[in-house]
């Protein structure tokens, strides 16, 4: 990864505890997770620009809720989380479910771009799991 090389970050730092960085708010993420999120952001920005819409980020004032990416078109919000995991748990999607409950007047479409291999529509919470590899297709 070019960014990791430019930052002089080793494989151990990318994947291990040494790779945890402090970010704004109470959360911490691995460096590879932050790089993955940046890659997803870059792809979404290209697709959004081609369709004449913007990509936004949402974080509440207290920092207790955050959505990585929001794309709005009319009454529909596409809420997207980027997760560098191969399996997505209920905890990984709690912010998406919060947003849907917080905005009942909007059509909130929930999605997670993840490191997994399968495109899945979860029946339990109607969340679309999109492999990051699909962003380049």
What attributes does this structure have?
single chain; 137 residues; alpha/beta; Trna Endonuclease, Chain: A, domain 1; six-stranded mixed beta sheet; two-stranded antiparallel sheet; 4 helices; 8 strands
Could you characterize the architecture of this molecule?
The chain has helices at 2-6, 11-15, 31-50, 94-102; strands at 20-22, 28-30, 55-59, 66-73, 76-83, 107-114, 120-121, 127-131. It has one domain (2-136): 3-Layer(aba) Sandwich (Trna Endonuclease, Chain: A, domain 1), CATH 3.40.1350. β1 (20-22) and β2 form a beta hairpin. The protein has a 6-stranded mixed β-sheet, with helices on both faces. It has a two-stranded antiparallel ribbon with strand order 1-2. The chain is of the alpha/beta class. The protein is globular, with a radius of gyration of 15 Å.
Outline the secondary-structure elements.
Layout: H1 2-6, H2 11-15, E1 20-22, E2 28-30, H3 31-50, E3 55-59, E4 66-73, E5 76-83, H4 94-102, E6 107-114, E7 120-121, E8 127-131
Parallel strand pairs: 5-6, 6-8
Antiparallel strand pairs: 1-2, 3-4, 4-5, 7-8
Q: Helix count, per DSSP?
A: 4
The oligomerization state is single chain
Total domain count: 1
- How does the major sheet shape up? 6 strands, mixed
Helix content range of the residues, please?
25-40%
What can be said about this structure in brief?
By secondary structure, this protein is α/β, with parallel strands linked by helices. It has helices at residues 2-6, 11-15, 31-50, 94-102, and strands at 20-22, 28-30, 55-59, 66-73, 76-83, 107-114, 120-121, 127-131.
């Amino acid at each position: 990864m070019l960014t990791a090389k430019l930052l002089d970050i080793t494989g151990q730092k990318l994947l291990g505890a040494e790779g945890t960085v402090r970010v704004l708010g109470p959360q911490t993420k691995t460096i590879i997770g932050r790089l993955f999120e940046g890659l997803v952001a870059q792809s979404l920005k290209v697709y959004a620009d081609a369709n004449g819409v913007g990509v936004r980020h949402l974080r509440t004032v207290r920092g207790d809720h955050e959505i990585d990416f929001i794309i709005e078109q009319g009454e529909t919000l596409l809420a997207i989380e980027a997760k560098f995991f191969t399996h997505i748990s209920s905890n990984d999607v709690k912010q998406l479910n919060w947003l849907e409950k917080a905005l009942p007047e909007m059509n909130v479409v929930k999605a997670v771009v993840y490191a997994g291999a399968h495109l899945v529509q979860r029946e339990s919470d109607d969340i679309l799991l999109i492999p990051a590899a699909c962003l380049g297709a």
